[in-house]
Write a structure and sequence with these properties.
single chain; two-stranded antiparallel sheet; 385 residues; 11 strands
């Protein structure tokens, strides 16, 4: 990358950060104005409520005034019978149930139910119960996808062709990961301006001057192949982006957690997932999203069996290693701004508690640079040291 290109990239990143900050200020001002308006409305409503309540009391005393001269003495109140049963209607609980009292927090991440740290949430959909996607022949795959997803021939053909190329280059080796790639409609996670290139071997920009891309299919396949998540594994992705990588993971695991630092992008992807679930993509019910700085992981849902990082950094974030389960695997691009190695790191914990982190380069001997978008930090800048 030339100095001029680096300067342009820096200017673009600075402009993107400035735009995000400005958008954040506008949203904050809108929230303040909305809260002020809500408080004023509630104040007026309270005044009217008190007024009507007072009028109601006056009317009640006038209409239902006791007629002591014509009525006999009040009957004595019987003492409560300790052996009597409750007078609640049959089937009505004496206290509100836990379900009734649990109010959804609109600010909570999608799908998260607030279970204790380390506990595995019940899956909304069991991926292991689904019929496998045929991957031995194009005819069987096409027939399956037309029946299952009613997909168009052009997307079926494009995905199959890219699948064949991934096999040829050794990006796909595990059968379940092959099926996950074929089951994931990459075109639904691309933006309209680059939709014709959905299955190209390329990073595709997500627009809005965010400086964020959807990773190319080959590197997604190779990184996912190295993770090889099982249905019971809890997976964490750092850098949700378009949602494509998490979608591939959701075809392998019942527990997928993903963090995106750009809040408007996180909201956009959250809405996309909601639309796809409504269309029958049940596996995406198991995807939990959060807008935050992924450098610190997602502690309340740790430990994770698998972690995948889709942005470049010059070291492995300590919190991610801490939140990785024993014998867990993290796949992460590590290196300089313009060149990284994609590493598979396994967390090995000895009987004495000693931790070892053996590494494996997913592209040994590669001469051409691999470049991911930088691991950005909340508030601006990156997490490069």
């Amino acid at each position: 990358m030339t100095p001029e290109d680096e300067g342009l990239q820096a200017e673009s990143e600075a402009a993107s950060r400035a735009e995000l900050i400005e958008q954040s200020k506008e949203r904050r001002a809108e929230r303040v104005a909305r809260r002020r308006s809500d408080r004023q409305f509630m104040g007026v409503l309270l005044i009217f409520a008190v007024l009507f309540f007072g009028i109601g009391i006056v009317l009640a005393r006038t209409v239902f005034r006791p007629r002591a001269a014509t009525e006999g003495p009040a009957a004595p109140v019987a003492a409560p019978d300790p052996t009597a049963t409750s007078s609640l209607p049959v089937g009505e609980p004496a206290t509100p149930s836990a379900t009734a009292s649990a109010v959804a927090d609109p600010a909570a991440p999608t799908g998260v139910t607030g279970t204790p740290a380390g506990a595995t949430e019940a899956a909304a959909y069991d991926i292991s119960a689904r019929a496998p996607v045929p991957f031995e022949s194009k005819a069987a795959f096409a027939e399956h996808m037309k029946s299952w997803r009613q997909e168009e021939d052009k997307w079926i053909n494009a995905r199959w062709e890219r699948y064949q190329k991934c096999l040829e280059l050794g990006d796909l080796k595990v059968d379940r990961v092959k099926q996950a790639f074929l089951a994931t409609p990459r075109q639904l996670f691309c933006r309209e301006q680059n939709l014709p290139r959905a299955y190209d071997h390329a990073y595709l920009d997500l627009g809005h001057n965010w400086g964020v891309t959807i990773s190319g299919p080959h590197i997604v396949c190779r990184m996912t192949n190295a993770l090889d998540p099982q249905p019971e594994h809890k997976c964490l992705e750092i850098g949700t982006g378009s949602g494509y990588q998490a979608a591939v993971l959701a075809n392998l695991s019942n527990h997928v957690y993903s963090i995106e630092i750009i809040k408007p992008l996180a909201q956009e992807t959250k809405e996309l997932y909601a639309d796809l679930v409504a269309e029958g993509y049940d596996e995406y019910k198991n995807v939990h999203l959060k807008a935050a700085d992924g450098y610190y992981g997602w502690e309340e849902h740790a430990p994770f069996d698998r972690i995948i990082v889709t942005c470049g950094i010059d070291h492995v974030p300590p919190d991610l290693i801490k939140q990785l389960a024993p014998d867990g695997i993290i796949v992460i691009p590590v290196g300089t701004y313009d060149s990284q190695k994609v590493l598979k790191i396994t967390k090995q914990v000895g009987a004495d508690g000693e931790i070892e982190l053996p590494e494996e380069d997913l592209y040994p001997g590669r001469t051409r640079a691999i470049q991911f978008v930088p691991f950005t930090a909340e508030g601006g800048g990156t997490h490069y040291r």
